[in-house]
Amino acid sequence: MTEAVIRSGRPVRPQTTEALTRGVCRFLTGRGLSVVREFSLKSKRRADITALDHQGQFIIVEVKSSVDDFRADKKWLDYIAHCDVFYFAVTENFPIAVLPDERGLIVADGFGAAIVRDAVPHPMNGNRRRKQLLNFARAAADRLEQQLDQRLTKL
Predict the structure, then answer these.
(1) pTM for this one?
(2) Which of 98, 137, 113 is nearest to 31 (CA)?
């Protein structure tokens, strides 16, 4: 079976989540943002996609593969304090009326994405931003080193 089951017991298709994540990351990096997937926040939550722009602003994107996924998972509320801008990313057939209007909306597939609704900015606390910026840099550097080490080990 190609389905995983989330805590609510409802099926989620991992390939949909992976495709959405890939498309959003391509979209963000194509616009000059630096991206870390599954970034651990100080709140002990892990954001699906965290991006940093050239001004040091954090963008968090929560990927939702289905309405059941959205309804079962309210962790995204904890992410708001850890970003300047927050978006949901969904497929083109997702019924967007179930999503909160005050949050940004990205429609994506496995190859790219588009912003359908801009997010309302809410600047982060300065101390939190500084600590998160250091954690973001360390996470990105650690992941790069791990990939390089794995590649060199295969030689």
Answers:
(1) 0.88
(2) 113
